[in-house]
Design goal:
The protein has about 180 residues and is mainly alpha-helical. It contains seven helices and four strands. A hairpin with a 3-residue loop joins strand 1 and strand 2.
Length: about 180
């Protein structure tokens, strides 16, 4: 098989396009590295992180070792519900990658757990209740993927009282009909 040589005008065009691309990447990186390289905004859980290297290993992506640097076993046990802590314990012992279930860069109000990619109540529920986790109102049992039960917490009672009857068990999902998520 014979290859035909490139036209003499193609080499300068490819070289110029490569030079422009390299300059654009360099300028964007120098101007605002996080904005230039970040695939999206961090969630409310990690918005206070100091930079990309808090969670990511250079040229390798997010690191479970960096996750456990902040989310130590002791701090996790005190902040998580007993069911959530019990669910995570064997995964931590097996050194499972946190990114197998958790993901970031989907925005301030996004959930970071894969099974909760879409919030059935709409994202405004977190703003309305002042919470930042599904477990503030729901108990998930030993498996996160099952249908949660409603916890008898003051925040849940306040939500029902605030709606003067319109917020009832099993009807919260209807809120999106009247309330926008913006």
């Amino acid at each position: 098989m014979r290859y035909h040589p490139l036209p003499t005008t193609a080499v300068p065009v490819v070289a110029l396009a490569t030079l422009v691309l390299v300059m654009w990447i360099g300028w964007g990186t120098a101007r605002s590295p996080a904005a230039f390289w970040a695939p999206g905004d961090l969630s409310r859980y990690h918005v206070d992180q100091g930079g990309c290297l808090q969670c990511h290993e250079p040229f390798q992506g997010p690191s479970s070792a960096r996750c456990t640097g902040c989310h130590t076993e002791g701090s996790f046990e005190t902040r998580a519900t007993s069911a959530v802590a019990a669910w995570h314990r064997p995964l931590a012992v097996q050194h499972k990658a946190c990114t197998g279930c958790h993901t970031e860069h989907r925005g301030m109000l996004a959930q970071i757990t894969e099974q909760t990619r879409s919030n059935p109540h709409g994202t405004f529920v977190f703003r309305a209740t002042g919470t930042n986790s599904c477990t503030a109102c729901h108990e998930f049992g030993t498996r996160v993927a099952i249908t949660p039960t409603l916890r008898q917490e003051p925040i849940v009672r306040r939500l029902y009282e605030k709606g003067r009857g319109s917020h009832q068990a099993g009807r919260i999902a209807e809120c999106v009909l009247c309330h926008s998520e913006g």
